[in-house]
């Protein structure tokens, strides 16, 4: 009987907690916002909703959500950034619908007999393909240029106005520490391998973490301070 209970206990222990990788992601994202390196908050919101049964994820995100959106919306107070973002969206729409639009235009012109001066319909097809390729490459170049300029403007704006969201950034750092502590507790309690839950950080002064790699761009790769698979064995 005792042997059966021991076997059952081991099986429960081996069953992985599916929420832990998402907690590690949220640690990276919240610390990123504290460092003014932001991803789309809608992506965070969706991940938390998809794992709404995890109390650690939902409670921390509930406390962090307003701060995240305030930091994310900070550059929207710049008319120049809004103008660039508008141009970028227009370029994106053009990129998506340009091919279909050119094909429809070609079909209409051919039906009207506009291509009668070409030696053959094959030649007109070649011309259409060349025109599409040229327009696509020009559009990609413009999109890339605008995207780089927009990202540069946003980075500069955060650098100049980051103090306006200092309170929110401090709070997010506190919430990041809470998430790290909760992840540490769950990894230790279930005797999981800490190396399975890697996260990235812009700040290396949190408690209960072990830095396993320091990138050249100032981003740290870390795990919680618990045993790794090598240490377990």
Number of domains: 2
Provide the structure class.
Answer: mainly alpha
Number of helical runs? 8
Mean pLDDT: 83
Ordered list of secondary-structure elements with their pairings:
Elements (H helix, E strand, L loop, with lengths): L1 H13 L5 H15 L6 H10 L4 H18 L6 H33 L9 H41 L4 H24 L9 E3 L7 E6 L5 E5 L4 H4 L1
Antiparallel strand pairs: 1-3, 2-3
Helix pairs in contact: 2-4, 2-7, 3-4, 4-7, 5-6
Could you walk me through the main structural features you see in this protein, from its secondary elements to its overall organization?
The protein has 233 residues and is mainly alpha-helical. The chain folds into two domains: 128 residues, no CATH class; 84 residues. Helix content is 68%, strand content 6%. It contains eight helices and three strands; from the N terminus they run H-H-H-H-H-H-H-E-E-E-H. The chain has a three-stranded antiparallel beta sheet with strand order 1-3-2. Helix 3 runs antiparallel to helix 4, helix 4 packs antiparallel against helix 7 and helix 5 packs antiparallel against helix 6.
Summarize the structure.
This protein has 233 residues and is mainly α. The protein is built from 8 helices and 3 strands. The protein has a 3-stranded antiparallel beta sheet.
